[in-house]
Amino acid sequence: MDEAVEKRLPKPEDLSAMTEESLKAAFAGESQAAEKYIVYAEQAEEEGFPNIAKLFRAVSFAETRHARNHLRVMNGVNSTTDNLAAAYAGESFEIEEMYPAYAEIAKVQKQAQASRSIKYALKAEMDHKWMYAEALERAIEGKDADAAPVSVCVVCGHTAIGDVPDKCPVCGAAKEYYRTF
Amino acid sequence: MTAQNIAAALAGESQAAQKYLAFADVADTEGYPNVARLFRAVAYAESAHARNHLSVLGGIGTTAENLKAAWGGETFEIAEMYPAYEAVARLQGNESAQTSIRYALQAEVDHQGIYDSTLRGVEGEKDLGAEAMRVCPVCGHTVIGDAPDECPRCGTHGLHFKEF
Fold first, then answer.
1. Using H for helix, E for strand and C for coil, what is the string for B38-87?
2. B89 vs chain A: nearest CA distance in angstroms?
């Protein structure tokens, strides 16, 4: 990040409990707004409103700045090894507790679309977990992650390091639906 | 129960995506470009999950409906959420929190105004003008047209604004 930008950002602070609760809720709100606006941008493009799509993308970016600021104040942005460990823990929670519980309830309640959305996420989080574990092991030794491309299925979020599969093994989407980073 | 769970999952995926984007910036600064790339790729995957959950919840409408929902969200943040949070942070003397809250609150006022005029255009089936939009990378101040020389909210130089 640019130093001129970095130095102006709100700093981590020893927070009182109620203020911390406020910032947690604000972080949740900004994060969801940022994601919603990206989806709204895609919808605007489909309807032939390219400039509204641009507006939604710009405002989404502004919300990501707010989310980052709140997260920093809560001391949630640390060194890369700490960040990888936090990311690994988050994925582990989703895999071991959150999504399996949600999947059971969606099944009992016969909510087919919810079950699908949960399954797509759960499968991808399993990939993310080992990818973060590998990156963390290397970062602890001061080494960067592998230079291989990382590709993501636009439909279900399946994440692959190296070659893109011909067909997504989770949702069946064709190769062209992967975005490579 | 399933609706509540999917709403919670939307919140979780959205926050994970934002965390990973912030972590990617740190990895770049620390000289880990490939870790940064991994964080950005996984953030993108979490965005796909967030979109899927939002779709299941019936949260994706037409552009006119989406603008109304966006305007409603900004209005809630301006009228209720941030003023309440700001008052608590002031009472508790948390300076950094107040700054982070103030930056957001001020930008949401920009967004509310732009969404309002854009919605009126769409109701007459008109797209927004083609003029560029610019966003301050520190505080999220959002303008249509040229960037100011200096951000009026946080003082960041105009050349750092991101153009859309």
1. HHHHHHHHHHHHHHHHHHHCCCCCCHHHHHHHHHHHHHHHHHHHHHHHHH
2. 5
